[in-house]
Specification:
The chain has one domain: Metal-dependent hydrolases (TIM Barrel, Alpha-Beta Barrel). Helix content is 43%, strand content 12%. The chain contains ten helices and eight strands. The protein starts with a strand and ends with a helix.
């Protein structure tokens, strides 16, 4: 069965490696690819994140550099990788130009956005709303980190931009997972990836699939922070149907990414 990891963070150098235990696990980029393929992952998606913190004096150049590294990784990995790229509400014009640039290259995945690392937090702020208007124009997908203290702001964002596909990252513990499910039931343009905290709670995926449908979940790991084998095995052994498993592992991602039959063959 194909597996598309919709949420990880690839890297070119040690500066972009964000694993939590680099003393014992810090594979080279090519080794990381082998590691992921070794646990059955057919395709990867995600943004490049740097260890060096963002500072306002660096401007949008900080994010543009990360985005160009994602494109360099695309050159290395070819059809195996869909780049995600950064935008920022303090740089509306630059972000919109970046979206146009990426759209012309055929890439429509924004994020994962990580505001807590990049000096902002309000998903419903005016600057980000302007960016999302352009994202809707280009039929972009927006992957965003779930900020636990910003539940109202996240809902405002999703509700205000029905033309944008949003993918929330990280189910979280049950109290936060329930909030995701409530929003997903209200807004058809909202999906949830399985990366980070949550999936290790046995039965959570079956519960969510029953509540909102398996077609609203995307497989993700948050590699290299998390061990992808744990996530693969968790989905393999959740009490869901094989049809639901296929949707979660790859069919939902293929649908959102707009993959043609020819492109789907490349993912195998």
């Amino acid at each position: 069965m194909k597996i598309i990891d919709f949420h990880l963070h690839p890297y070119l150098t040690e500066e972009e490696f964000i694993g939590k235990f680099p003393e014992s696990f810090s594979p080279a980029p090519t080794q990381a690819g082998e590691d992921l393929r070794g646990c059955g992952i057919s395709h990867i998606c995600g943004s490049v994140i740097a260890r060096t913190p963002y500072a306002p004096e660096k401007g949008f150049a900080y994010f543009r550099e990360l985005n160009r590294k994602a494109l360099e990784l695309k050159e290395r990995f070819g059809t195996w990788y869909t780049p995600g790229f950064h935008v920022h509400p303090d740089y509306v014009e630059e972000s919109c130009r970046e979206m146009e640039f990426m759209q012309e290259k055929g890439f429509r995945l924004i994020g994962e956005l990580v505001p807590y690392m990049h000096g902002w937090k309000d998903y419903s702020c005016d600057g980000f709303s302007e960016i999302l208007k352009t994202a809707g124009k280009y039929h972009m997908i927006v992957s965003y980190h779930t900020v636990l203290g910003e539940q109202e702001e996240m809902e405002k964002m999703v509700a205000a931009h029905p033309e944008v596909i949003f993918v929330a990252a990280h189910p979280g513990e049950r109290q936060y997972y329930e909030k995701h499910l409530e929003r997903m039931a209200k807004y058809e343009n909202l999906y949830l990836d399985l990366s980070g905290t949550g999936l290790f709670r046995y039965g959570m995926l079956a519960y969510g699939a029953k509540k909102v449908g398996a077609e609203r979940f995307l497989f993700g790991t948050d590699y290299p922070i998390c061990n992808p084998r744990m996530y693969v095995q968790a989905v393999m052994h959740e009490p869901i149907s094989e049809e639901e498993r296929e949707l979660i592992f790859y069919k939902n991602a293929e649908r959102l990414l707009g993959c043609s039959d020819e492109e789907n063959e490349k993912f195998r």
